[in-house]
Design a protein that fits this description.
single chain; 48% strand; elongated
């Protein structure tokens, strides 16, 4: 027997799936209707279970790669009667950033977002820098152009991780002599599944996800290359939270600049004044 949409809407189950291969958090929905328009069938979010990996193959920089944050959603858009264009996809913003590279008694370098650090803004866009406000424009979004006669079903997905390079030597020095002693990083993000009307800019938040990435690497610069760095914590990241109630997107999360273009690399010596090593691009 064919079940009507109203009957289907009477059922909802929320599943929290934790397994050894990734601790995936999953919400399976009614499917539920948002303003009697767009239906979110399923949302999944997880951070890979593998620990951060460290690469000491270069005598100039240390590299590390964190596990991936992943989010995906299955969405149904009912027939669009008029000449409307809707884009559904992922928007992400950074809410908090601490990124410190310590060089013993010489000082530390830090990547900073000045406006975020000084609490002038609540969050900053983490767009790819091209397709504002979207995180990306491949698997991250889908556009439906009306009029359409049938339901349109699709999946939008995204992933994010860190893969930076940190100099062994003090960044304001021409020397490559290793002085790096530790790396600490703690960043928080909010990620929204959003439907956006291209003509009116009407924005509907369909789902909100919060996640965090932490990192602490201990380094002994006296040891040979390839044996210096050790992942202190964590070996596994906290899993993302799919929020039961959606959050409003701050204005800064929708417009330029994005976090990559706004960040500044500072050198903060133990003695003396801070120095801007790399200014913001924007």
């Amino acid at each position: 027997m064919r079940r009507s949409l109203s009957d289907t809407l009477a059922f909802c189950r929320i599943l929290l799936i934790v397994n050894a291969m990734g601790c995936i958090q999953s919400i399976r929905c009614k499917p539920r209707s948002f303003r009697e328009s767009i239906i979110v069938l399923e949302v999944n979010s997880s951070i890979d279970s593998n620990p951060t990996t460290i690469d000491e193959s270069s005598n100039v920089v240390l590299r590390y790669r964190t596990p991936h944050f992943r989010a995906s959603a299955r969405v149904l858009v009912p027939p669009v009667a008029g000449k409307e264009t809707w884009t559904v996809g992922w928007i992400q913003a950074c809410n908090h950033m601490e990124f410190y590279n310590n060089y013993g008694n010489r000082g530390m370098s830090s990547w900073e977002l000045p406006d975020l650090r000084e609490h002038h803004i609540q969050a900053i866009s983490d767009s790819d820098g091209v397709n504002y406000p979207w995180y990306g424009n491949t698997t991250e979004t889908c556009t439906v152009v009306g009029p359409t006669k049938k339901d349109t079903k699709f999946t939008v997905s995204m992933n994010d991780n860190f893969y930076p390079s940190v100099t062994w030597g003090v960044p304001v020095s021409d020397s490559n002599l290793p002085h790096l002693t530790s790396i600490r990083r703690d960043q928080s993000f909010t990620t929204w599944l959003v439907a956006l009307n291209q003509a009116t800019n009407e924005t509907m938040v369909l789902q909100t996800v919060r996640w965090r990435m932490q990192l602490h690497i201990d380094i002994d610069p006296e040891r040979p290359l390839g044996q210096r760095a050790r992942l202190a914590e964590p070996t596994a990241q906290e899993q993302p939270q799919i929020l039961p109630r959606n959050e409003i997107i701050p204005a800064n999360a929708m417009v330029k600049p994005n976090a990559n273009d706004a960040q500044v690399l500072m050198w903060r010596p133990k003695v003396g004044e801070p120095v801007v090593v790399i200014p913001p691009k924007y």
